[in-house]
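pasting for the record
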Amino acid sequence: MKLENDFIKDGDTYTLKDEIVDSLLEQFPERDAILFKLPDFFSQFDKGLRENGYEYKRDLITYYNEKKQTHPLEYEKYEGNPFLGLFYKRGFFKLQKEYRIALADFSDEDVIINIGNIRGCTEVWSIETIRGLRVQMIEIEEG
């Protein structure tokens, strides 16, 4: 999710839009939401991949309207690095608000990467519980 798209801003506080929760409940009934403490999770995740020598990319998916535009990734860029094509999807899927992590090395074999225990980086909530979720932005001084 993105603050600017999926939350209502009120000063330094952001509240999750009801339509986001409704959409999640419709797509994933009887499932829980896993909320990640992203700085902690990605620090642990990045370290695990680096230590195992993996090249990877992690980013939000870019959605595009295939009826109004061609694929936004230029052919030359794709030819030079087809891996980049993994971060684009047709607009039909935009409600997924997907964040994708992909390894640069393609393999027909499953890859298991040990990044350690992530329980300290996550919280599990019912989807209905996140209705009205509020996030407050605060400045943190680097020390």
